[in-house]
Amino acid sequence: MDTGLFIALLNPTIALALGAAFLVLWTYQRHRPYLAVLAFSYCVSAPGFLFQYFTLPIGMALTKLVSNICFTIAGCCLSGAIVARYGRKVPHVGIGVLAGGGLASFCWFLFVEPDLTWRILAMNFAFGGISLLVAAELRPVRNNGPTEKILFLLSLLSGLNFFVRTLVVVIAHGPFTSYDGFYGSSYWTTALLSHALLSLLIALCLFTAAALDVMKALKAETHTDPLSGLLNRRGFEERAEFLLQRCAAAKFPVALVLADLDHFKALNDVHGHAAGDRVIADFAAKLRSATGARGAAGRIGGEEFAVLLPLSDLAAARLFAEAVRTLYSAGGIDGLPAGTKVTASFGVAARSGEEALEPLMRRADEALYKAKKNGRDSVRLSFERPEAVFVPEPSRAG
Description:
Its EC number is 2.7.7.65. By secondary structure, the protein is of the alpha+beta class. 66% of the residues lie in helices and 8% in strands.
């Protein structure tokens, strides 16, 4: 196999391999449609490269048009998938204008005023503009993690490659008047090799992002209670420890609320476990809605729940608990007989100094015990503070 043919087949092979890999990923993660778009993008780019080297029976001009249409579709899909992966709104209009403008210019310099050099500039500038548009969309999220930063830099590098490399090579070795010897030129060689390298780097980064997505999903499953949708005990403790450290560093107040559903065992015995599950799910939904994104809410036992509230003192946490208690006791629950009242008891403790999670939970649990003992459907506060550890000062000589 001669070198020219090897280089010509390099990119289609890479593109098909990457497309197949993303397709396999998507079959296991159907809830991430951007993976299917990536697979389609890489697969469509493969015939684009083949039709640059091999001419279809429709003639050279139309073959080149088909090839560049494949490139354009692939570029639009790739850029859209990257932007969508990071939760950004895909700039369809901007991508469409750049892609459409590039293809229109290509057609003009292919059929109206044939000029190979201007066709090269038109398509490369269009793809460069799309790459820079992707970089602009990734800019707000570039510091969210390593993959975001790498993809942002690769988008910038891709844009510069389409603009700078093309101009440098055209100025140094152009203009190109025909396809005779074109596929052995420095432009075509650098274009293929730079595209192969950037494709591999972008795909590797996207594979890493997909792997991180899977790891985050698995972690979420191991830290989430499936019935309530809240954090389980392990997840709550990890999240609470993190928030306590953040609040200690910033000198912010923190409070803990423990809640326990009243007479839950009796409710299960009378109405069945399915009704008990609905009660837990309903209470968890109200607790999650009241907590919002500011704190951490978890189901730490059968019918016991915990909420850590940053930026809240004892009074604010009491208002939170009273609001949830009132809301819950006043509403009915689907699946239970009309008039069935379900209530909850609450214990509240505010953090003292840099008190750890365990003693804070112990004090809140003592307050919760008082609420259960004194009639339930109430909120009790812990006014106690953890015992200070006395450390004698070293004696000073003379």
